[in-house]
Specification:
heterodimer, A: seven-stranded antiparallel β-sheet, 28% strand, B: alpha+beta, Uridine Diphospho-n-acetylenolpyruvylglucosamine Reductase, domain 2, Uridine Diphospho-n-acetylenolpyruvylglucosamine Reductase, domain 3, Vanillyl-alcohol Oxidase, Chain A, domain 3, five-stranded antiparallel β-sheet, 21% strand, globular
Chain lengths: 356, 512
C-alpha cells in the first residue's frame, strides 16, 4: 500500500500506509516536540523515504509504529577549520560530509566505502563507529559533542576537545540504537587534507610475524592513515598508507624499521589499490557492507583468531588487539546478558524520567 | 569517643573486613575530606566537614562487593577514597556514611608485553606504578602533578590528565577494561559487555557515583628512547596558541606543549632562569604552589598585595604580551627530532625566540613541585586554588579574557595553556585572594568560583578538563549538560538503585 497524507492523532499532519505512520523532521530542534507528542506510542528512526514494504497492510493502525525520518536533516551546519570541527546533522552521510569538507581542504580521514553511504546518526546510533586509522583515530573518538533529542528537549554540552565533567554522557546514545533518544546532530573532528601520501606493502611469512612488524612500526611512533593485515596466497601482507606533512621523514623512519626486520617492501602498487578499493574517494561510489567484523581478538591471539578463515582481513590493529573482518555481512557482536540487563534498566529509567 | 554506629552495621562490617575498620575520631577526621580548598576554608571558618561513621580498608574486590551489598541493604552511603588528593570535594564524606579506602587493593595483576597492557588494582599509588612500569621498560605516559599522592583508581574516577596528554592522551584514552562493583554489589568487567553501550566511558569520570572501580587494564608504551627539550619566547599569546594548534593539527604528538600567560611567564621565567633560588618572583610562584617558605614579613606583604586584586590584575594587563612556550618531544630518536624540528619551523615562522633546552629541562625538573600539603598562604589569611577549563582553539583567548575579567575584582589570576589537542586545549588558571576574616574569605572564594564557572558556561567552554566535578562544579553541571543530566539520572537509577554511591556528588540530587 502506498503512503498518503493523513492526520496522526497526536502529531497532526503525517503520512500513513494504513499500518504505520511516517513523519519527516524539518530541523533537529523539532525532534523533541515530535517525541513529546508521541508520548508512549512506539516509534523508530529512519533515514530517507519509508520503504515501500514497510509492513503495509489494510489493517490501519495495526501496530501504530511511527517512523521518524531524519533523512531530511542532512545539512553540514558549519565548518570551523581553525577548530578542526564540523557541525553536521544526523541525516548527513559520511560521503556528503566529506564532499563538503573537500571544498574547504579538510577531511574526517579515511572513510570505508561501506560506511560512506550511511548517515552520521545511523552509524553512531548503531555503534558502527570503528575506523581503522591510527593517525586519525576512531570515528567514535572524533565526536566532540553530540546532541540528542529527548521528549523534554535537546541534550547538549560544550564543544571541547576533552572534559572532566563526570561520565561522558554524550557517549550514551552511541551504540544505544536510539533507545537513549534520537541523535540530532554532532560536532565531528576534521583535519587538514594531506596531499603528501605514500603506500607500502610488506610481505611476511605469517600472522605472528606480521603483527610483530606492525608493532615495531607502532613503537617507532609512526601512525599510518590506515593499515591492514591480509592473507595473500601463502603469505601475509601488511599494507599501509602514510600521510604527511613531513612525509619523507616518516618514510625514512619506516624504512629503518623495515630494514631492521629484514622484510621485502613493495611500494605503492597493491596497497594503493587496496586503498582505492576499500576507502571512499570524493566522486567515487559507496558500496554496501562487504567486509564485516566477526571478532575482536587480543593482540597475542591474532594467529588463532584467523585460523581456518580463508579470506580474512585484520583491521583496527592495536597493540592490545585487532578486529578480524570476513567478506560477508555479519551480525553485530553479541551483548553479554548481564550488561544487556543493566543497559535495559538505564533505558527504562530514561524513559520513565523523560515522561515525568 | 567512638561514634554510635548501628550494631547490625558494625557486625556486618567486621564480618567482611575484620579489624581493618576504624571508628576513631582521628581516622574519621582524616577521611572527612580531600584537598578541596573549600574544605580548608570551611575549617578555618569554624565549620569543618562532617565526619563519616567509619572507615574500612578492604583488600580484595570480593570484600568491596560485600561491603557494597551490606551498605545497600542498610541504606548506608559510601564514599570511595583513594589517596585523597582530589581538589573538587569528590571524596568529601557524607554524613552517616562509610568511607571505603581502596589503597589496599594494590596489586599489579598482569603485565602483558605482547598486548602492551597492564592490569592494576585501583589503590596502586601513581608514582610507584610508573616506577614499576619503568623497571619493565614501559610507561603509561600519565604524569599528573599529583602523581606522588594519587592512585590509579582515582585517576580513572576523576577523568584525570597527565602532563604528557598531548602524546599519550587523557586517562580515558588509556583504559581498555574496568573492573567495577556497581550499587547492587555485583562485580562487572566492562570488556565483557560486548556490543552496545560504551561502558568504559560511562564509568570513567563517575567519581564513585555509579560504581567503585576496583581494577583497571591500561594501555602502556615503551619508554621513550629520546627527548628533545625546547623553550620559545613567543611575541604574543595568540602566536603561541597558533603554534600549538598547527603542531597538533599536523598530526604531530609532542609530549608537552605548555605556554604561560604573561604574568605566569614572568614568574616561571624568574624561577627557571638558571640562577639558584630563582629570585623574588620565583619565590612567589613557589608560595602559590605550596612549596615556598613564607616568613612573617612575606605573609604580610602577600596579604596586602592580594587585598587589591583589581589593581594587581590591572598592572598585569600592562605587562608585555610575551609568553613562554615550553615543549618536550619524545619517542624514538627520529620521532623526537622530527617533532622538535617541526615545532621549531612553526615557532620561528611566528616570530619566536629560541631559548634553547633550558626552559624545557627546568620544567621537567620541577614538574611535581605542587605540594600535597595545601599552600602555606592559608596560614597567612589568604587562599589559593586552581581552575582548569577547555575549549576549541577559536574559543581559547575569548574564554581566557572572560574568566580573567569575571574574577579580576576578587583575586589575582594567572594561567597557562596545556593539554593540547587537534581541536583545542585546556586553560589552567591559578588564583589567589584574601579577605578580612575566614568567613569573608570563604565568601570571596565561592564568588570567584561562581563567576569563573558562569563565564565559562557563557563562552561555551567545558567547565572542567581534568580535576573532575565533585562538589566544586556541581552548581553548574545542569547548565553544562542540559537535558543530558537525564542520562546521568538514568545511569544512577540503573547502577545504584539504593542511591548509596557517593550521593550528592557531580549533580545535586534535586537537580536530577
Amino acid at each position: 500500500m502506498s503512503w498518503r497524507s493523513a492526520r496522526h492523532p497526536r502529531l497532526g499532519a503525517a503520512q500513513t500506509n494504513g499500518a504505520r505512520w511516517w513523519v519527516r523532521a524539518a530541523t533537529p530542534e523539532a525532534l523533541p516536540g515530535i517525541l513529546a507528542a508521541l508520548g508512549d506510542a512506539p516509534w523508530r528512526a529512519t533515514f530517507g523515504a519509508p520503504p515501500a514494504d514497510a509492513n503495509a497492510n489494510a489493517n490501519a493502525g495495526a501496530d501504530g509504529l511511527c517512523l521518524i525520518d531524519l533523512g531530511g536533516l542532512d545539512a553540514v551546519r558549519s565548518v570551523e577549520p581553525d577548530n578542526g570541527v564540523a557541525h553536521v546533522e544526523a541525516g548527513c552521510t559520511w560521503s556528503g560530509l566529506e564532499r563538503t569538507l573537500a571544498g574547504r581542504g579538510l577531511t574526517v580521514g579515511p572513510i570505508p566505502r561501506w560506511l560512506a553511504g550511511r548517515t552520521v546518526g545511523e552509524t553512531l546510533s548503531d555503534g558502527w563507529t570503528a575506523r581503522p586509522s591510527p593517525r586519525y583515530g576512531r570515528l567514535r573518538d572524533g565526536v566532540l559533542a553530540l546532541r540528542t533529542a529527548l521528549p523534554t528537549g535537546l541534550t547538549g554540552c560544550a564543544v571541547a576537545p576533552r572534559r572532566a565533567t563526570g561520565p561522558d554522557l554524550g557517549r550514551l546514545p552511541t551504540g544505544a540504537g536510539h533507545r537513549a533518544g534520537l541523535i540530532a546532530d554532532a560536532h565531528i573532528r576534521v583535519w587538514p587534507q594531506n596531499t603528501e601520501r605514500a603506500w607500502r606493502r610488506l610481505k611476511l611469512r605469517g600472522w605472528n610475524e606480521a603483527r610483530a612488524a606492525a608493532m615495531a612500526i607502532f613503537s617507532e611512533g609512526l601512525r599510518p592513515a590506515w593499515w591492514c593485515l591480509r592473507r595473500d596466497r601463502r603469505q601475509v601482507a601488511l599494507e599501509l598508507e602514510m600521510h604527511g606533512p613531513r612525509l619523507n621523514g616518516q618514510l625514512e623512519r619506516l624504512d629503518a624499521v623495515v630494514d631492521g626486520l629484514d622484510l621485502t617492501v613493495h611500494r605503492d602498487d597493491a596497497a594503493a589499490a587496496l586503498a582505492a578499493e576499500r576507502f571512499w574517494q570524493p566522486g567515487g561510489e559507496t558500496e554496501p557492507l562487504t567486509m564485516s567484523p566477526i571478532a575482536a581478538v587480543d593482540g597475542a591471539d591474532l594467529a588463532a583468531g584467523v585460523k581456518g578463515i580463508a579470506k580474512a582481513e585484520v583491521w583496527d590493529l592495536r597493540p592490545e588487539g585487532a578486529t578480524i573482518y570476513v567478506p560477508r555481512a555479519a551480525d553485530p557482536p553479541p551483548v553479554d546478558d548481564d550488561w544487556a540487563a543493566l543497559s535495559a534498566r538505564v533505558f527504562a529509567a530514561l524513559a520513565d524520567g523523560s515522561r515525568r | 569517643m567512638v561514634t554510635p554506629i548501628p550494631r547490625g552495621l558494625m557486625d556486618g562490617l567486621t564480618d567482611i573486613v575484620g579489624d581493618r575498620l576504624s571508628t576513631t575520631p582521628p581516622d574519621r577526621t582524616a577521611y572527612a575530606r580531600d584537598l578541596w580548598p573549600r574544605s580548608q576554608l570551611d575549617r578555618l571558618a569554624g565549620d569543618p566537614p562532617e565526619r563519616p561513621l567509619a572507615v574500612v580498608w578492604p583488600t580484595s574486590v570480593e570484600e568491596v562487593a560485600a561491603l557494597v551489598t551490606l551498605c545497600a541493604r542498610e541504606r548506608v552511603p559510601i564514599v570511595p577514597f583513594g589517596a585523597g588528593s582530589g581538589v573538587c570535594g569528590g571524596a568529601r564524606a557524607v554524613p552517616g556514611g562509610l568511607v571505603i579506602d581502596l589503597k589496599r587493593l594494590k596489586r599489579i595483576r598482569r603485565i602483558d608485553r605482547a598486548a602492551m597492557v597492564v592490569e592494576v588494582e585501583a589503590g596502586f599509588m601513581g608514582e610507584r606504578f610508573e616506577r614499576t612500569l619503568e623497571r619493565h621498560g614501559l610507561t603509561l605516559g600519565h604524569f599528573p602533578s599529583s602523581i606522588l599522592c594519587s592512585t590509579v583508581g582515582g585517576w580513572v574516577a576523576a577523568r584525570s590528565a597527565g602532563q604528557c596528554s598531548s602524546r599519550y592522551g587523557k586517562i580515558e584514552d588509556m583504559v581498555v577494561d574496568l573492573e567495577v562493583v556497581t550499587g547492587d554489589g555485583r562485580i562487572r568487567r566492562t570488556s565483557q559487555a560486548g556490543g552496545g553501550l560504551d561502558w568504559n566511558q560511562l564509568f570513567i569520570g563517575s567519581e564513585g557515583t555509579l560504581g567503585l572501580i576496583t581494577a583497571v587494564t591500561l594501555r602502556v608504551h615503551r619508554q621513550p628512547e629520546a627527548r628533545a627539550f625546547r623553550g620559545w619566547r613567543m611575541p604574543t599569546m595568540a602566536a603561541g596558541l597558533d603554534v600549538m594548534r598547527q603542531t597538533m593539527q599536523a598530526g604531530l604528538r609532542p609530549a608537552v606543549m605548555r605556554m604561560y600567560d604573561p604574568v605566569d611567564t614572568l614568574l616561571v621565567g624568574s624561577k627557571d632562569d638558571g640562577k639558584s633560588g630563582g629570585g623574588q618572583l620565583g619565590k612567589l610562584k613557589a608560595i602559590l604552589a605550596g612549596t615556598g617558605q613564607l616568613d612573617d614579613l612575606k605573609q604580610a606583604a602577600t596579604r596586602r598585595a592580594l587585598a587589591a586584586p583589581r589593581l594587581l590584575n590591572f598592572a598585569i594587563r600592562q605587562l608585555p604580551e610575551t609568553s613562554l612556550l615550553v615543549t618536550v618531544s619524545e619517542g624514538s630518536p627520529g620521532e623526537a627530532r622530527q617533532t622538535d624540528e617541526a615545532i621549531a619551523e612553526y615557532a620561528l615562522a611566528a616570530g619566536a625566540l629560541d631559548l634553547g633546552e633550558r626552559p624545557g629541562r627546568a620544567w621537567m625538573a620541577h614538574r611535581y613541585d605542587v605540594s600535597y600539603k595545601q599552600s602555606k598562604l592559608y596560614r597567612s589569611g589568604c587562599f589559593v586554588d586552581t581552575f582548569e577549563v577547555a575549549t576549541t582553539w577559536a574559543g581559547i583567548e575569548p574564554l581566557y579574557d572572560a574568566v580573567r575579567r569575571a574574577v579580576a575584582a576578587e583575586v589575582l589570576v594567572m594561567a597557562h595553556f596545556s593539554h593540547v589537542y587537534p581541536g583545542g586545549c585546556s586553560i589552567y588558571f591559578t588564583f589567589a585572594g584574601t579577605a578580612r576574616d575566614p568567613g569573608r574569605m570563604r565568601q570571596r572564594y565561592l564568588r570567584t568560583w561562581r563567576e569563573a564557572l558562569d563565564a565559562t558556561v557563557a563562552r561555551g567552554g567545558a567547565i572542567a578538563h581534568h580535576h573532575g566535578a565533585g562538589l566544586s562544579r556541581r552548581s553548574h553541571m545542569v547548565a553544562t549538560h542540559g537535558e543530558a543530566r537525564r542520562y546521568f539520572a538514568a545511569l544512577k537509577a540503573a547502577c545504584d538503585p539504593a542511591g548509596i554511591l557517593n550521593p550528592g556528588k557531580l549533580f545535586a540530587e534535586e537537580a536530577l
